[in-house]
């Protein structure tokens, strides 16, 4: 039931984005992360990451540079929570960490001239995002896929901030973001198990 409500909210949100109808987005977008938190069933690091994501989603519904920076700050909290939670499962492979590090450096170098006053905030945020995506590999392939999609979604936002948007970008941003949150939460639950068998390890993630 919880996931069906999440899927319903996701469908409403994507419809609102596709039709550029903001009332639908205001109704559905703030529900996405809380419904996944309900499905997660506990306040842990991943859960707190979802709380930060909810605040970020609301901030990004408001146009303007200040709400954009506020939303980025909230999602920085999400990335830090996810990163610490994932690292508790182990360290990512060196090649994975190196790959994401190179990707971070190349993308920031390419976009740097076009980002203006957003250069430093995006540099810092994208570093935490890339570290989270790399650390996700230490949990499971499902969580790793979620981490990659989160990075891809925010990369598309960064392209828009650099004036490099394309038709349908906003819809792709939301599809990849919704998929990322879903894969991360369900992947963590699958990795930890459910019920009393999961024990203390589940409570720490």
TrEMBL record:
The keyword Metal-binding does not apply. Keywords: Membrane, Transmembrane, Transmembrane helix. It comes from the Bacteria. Pfam families: YhhN. It is a multi-pass membrane protein. The chain crosses the membrane at residues 36-61, 68-89, 95-115, 122-139, 145-164, 171-189. The keyword Membrane applies. Its main location: membrane. It is found in: Membrane. Belongs to the TMEM86 family. PANTHER family: GH04784P. This is Lysoplasmalogenase. It comes from Dactylosporangium maewongense.
């Amino acid at each position: 039931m919880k996931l069906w409500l999440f899927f319903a909210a996701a469908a409403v949100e994507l419809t609102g984005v596709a039709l550029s109808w903001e009332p639908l987005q205001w109704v559905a977008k703030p529900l996405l992360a809380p419904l996944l938190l309900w499905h997660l069933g506990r306040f842990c690091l991943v859960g707190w990451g979802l709380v930060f994501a909810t605040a970020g989603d609301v901030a990004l519904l408001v146009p303007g540079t200040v709400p954009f920076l506020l939303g980025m700050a909230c999602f920085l909290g999400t990335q830090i929570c996810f990163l610490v939670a994932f690292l508790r499962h182990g360290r990512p492979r060196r090649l994975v960490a190196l790959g994401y590090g190179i990707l971070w450096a190349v993308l920031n170098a390419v976009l740097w001239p076009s980002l203006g006053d957003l250069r430093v905030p995006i540099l810092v945020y994208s570093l935490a995002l890339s570290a989270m995506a790399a650390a996700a590999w230490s949990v499971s392939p499902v969580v790793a896929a979620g981490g990659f999609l989160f990075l891809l979604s925010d990369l598309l936002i960064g392209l828009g901030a650099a004036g490099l948007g394309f038709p349908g970008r906003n819809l792709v941003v939301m599809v990849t973001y919704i998929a990322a949150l879903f894969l991360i939460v369900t992947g963590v639950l699958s990795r930890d198990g459910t019920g009393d068998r999961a024990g203390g390890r589940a409570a720490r993630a």
